[in-house]
C-alpha cells in the first residue's frame, strides 16, 4: 500500500514538474530557415504569428526562449487535436472542460477547433442547435462570440419581474423564445433592458 502511494506521488510530482518546465516553452532564437506551420489547415493562428517577424512576444534574456504561460493540462487536448483532428468524447461531455478548451482555442486562434466546440457559443441553454448558434453569431457579426446565459425562464421563472431582475442593465442581449408549437424566435438589442417603461431606438437590433 505504501509503495503504491509513493509511486503515485512520484508520478504526480514528475507530471507537475514536466508541465512546469514546459509552460509551452518554444525556443525560436536559432530559427534561421523558413518555417511553415500548417495547424489543421489554418495559416492565421497564434503559432504562425509566433514565428513571424512582427512577433512581439517577450523572450528570455538567457536563451531567447518564448514562454506562453497557459494551462498545461488543457494544452494536451490541443496537441491531440493537432495530431488527430478530433476532440475526445470525455471533453465534449464535460462542460467545464469544454469551456476551458474553448478559451485556449480562442487564445491560440485555432478557429477550426473553435468550430468543433461551437456549442459553447451559447452555453447552458437547451433551445439552440449548433447551426442556430453559428447563424445567430453571423447575424451579430462575430462568428466566435461567446454568450453568457443570464436568464432562463424554465429555471428562473416566467414572470416579468424574474426577467427584469436578471436582464436589466446587463448590456447587449440576445433573447431566444420557444413557442408552444416549438417554433423559435427572438431578437438582439445592443441597448440594455430597463424597467422604466420607455421606448428606445436601436439601429443595430435584429
Description:
InterPro entries: BACURD1-3, SKP1/BTB/POZ_sf, T1-type_BTB, TLDc_dom. One of its GO terms (biological process) is protein homooligomerization. Helix 3 crosses helix 5. This protein is mainly α and 206 residues long. It folds into two domains: 22-121, Potassium Channel Kv1.1, Chain A, CATH 3.30.710; 124-206, no CATH class. It is built from nine helices and four strands; from the N terminus they run H-E-H-E-H-H-H-H-H-H-H-E-E. The model is unreliable at 21-40 (pLDDT under 50). A hairpin with a 5-residue loop joins strand 3 (173-178) and strand 4.
Low-confidence stretches: 21-40
Question: Based on helices, strands and strand pairing, what is the structural class?
Answer: mainly alpha
| Strand portion | 5-15%
Helix content range: 40-55%
Q: Any idea what the radius of gyration is? A: 23 Å
The CATH homologous superfamily of the largest domain is named Potassium Channel Kv1.1, Chain A
N-to-C SSE series?
A: HEHEHHHHHHHEE
CATH topology value of the largest domain:
Potassium Channel Kv1.1, Chain A
How many E-type strands?
Answer: 4
Question: What's the level 1 CATH class of the largest domain?
Answer: Alpha Beta
Q: Outline, from the CA principal axes? A: elongated
Tally of structural domains = 2
Task: Describe the structure concisely for a colleague.
This protein has 206 residues and is mostly helical. The protein has helices at 2-22, 46-50, 72-84, 89-92, 95-107, 111-116, 130-140, 153-156, 160-167, and strands at residues 25-27, 65-67, 173-178, 184-189.
List the helices and strands and how they pair.
Layout: H1 2-22, E1 25-27, H2 46-50, E2 65-67, H3 72-84, H4 89-92, H5 95-107, H6 111-116, H7 130-140, H8 153-156, H9 160-167, E3 173-178, E4 184-189
Antiparallel strand pairs: 1-2, 3-4
Amino acid at each position: 500500500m505504501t509503495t503504491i502511494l509513493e509511486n503515485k506521488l512520484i508520478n504526480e510530482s514528475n507530471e507537475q514538474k514536466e508541465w512546469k518546465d514546459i509552460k509551452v516553452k518554444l525556443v525560436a532564437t536559432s530559427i534561421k530557415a523558413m518555417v511553415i506551420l500548417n495547424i489543421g489547415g489554418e495559416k492565421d493562428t497564434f503559432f504562425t504569428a509566433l514565428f513571424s517577424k512582427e512577433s512581439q512576444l517577450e523572450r528570455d534574456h538567457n536563451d531567447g526562449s518564448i514562454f506562453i504561460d497557459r494551462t498545461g493540462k488543457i494544452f494536451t487536448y490541443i496537441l491531440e487535436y493537432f495530431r488527430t483532428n478530433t476532440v475526445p468524447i470525455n471533453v465534449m461531455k464535460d462542460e467545464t472542460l469544454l469551456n476551458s478548451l474553448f478559451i485556449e482555442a480562442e487564445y491560440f486562434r485555432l478557429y477550426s477547433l473553435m468550430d468543433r466546440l461551437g456549442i459553447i457559443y451559447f452555453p447552458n441553454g437547451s433551445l439552440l442547435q449548433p447551426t442556430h448558434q453559428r447563424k445567430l453569431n453571423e447575424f451579430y457579426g462575430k462568428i466566435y462570440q461567446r454568450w453568457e446565459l443570464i436568464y432562463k425562464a424554465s429555471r428562473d421563472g416566467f414572470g416579468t419581474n424574474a426577467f427584469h431582475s436578471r436582464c436589466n442593465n446587463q448590456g447587449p442581449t440576445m433573447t431566444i423564445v420557444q413557442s408552444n408549437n416549438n417554433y423559435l424566435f427572438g431578437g438582439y438589442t445592443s441597448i440594455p433592458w430597463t424597467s422604466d417603461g420607455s421606448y428606445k431606438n436601436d439601429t443595430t437590433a435584429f
